[in-house]
Amino acid sequence: YDAVRVETYKFLDSISEADLAVRPHPRRPEYSLANMFSHLLVEESQHVGHVAYIRGIQRGIEE
Question: What domain range includes position 47?
Fold first, then answer.
């Protein structure tokens, strides 16, 4: 986990705003790096919501 985090921060520090328009995948030419980040953030927030929901079920309605 820590190694991936370090590499992710290195990558994020290395890109510019112009890089966000790059379309890195030839099979998905309509999908820019900015689209990928947007998708990633939405997916992450949805899964955090799923975890919170499950934790609520485990705790019960009284807590």
Answer: 32-63
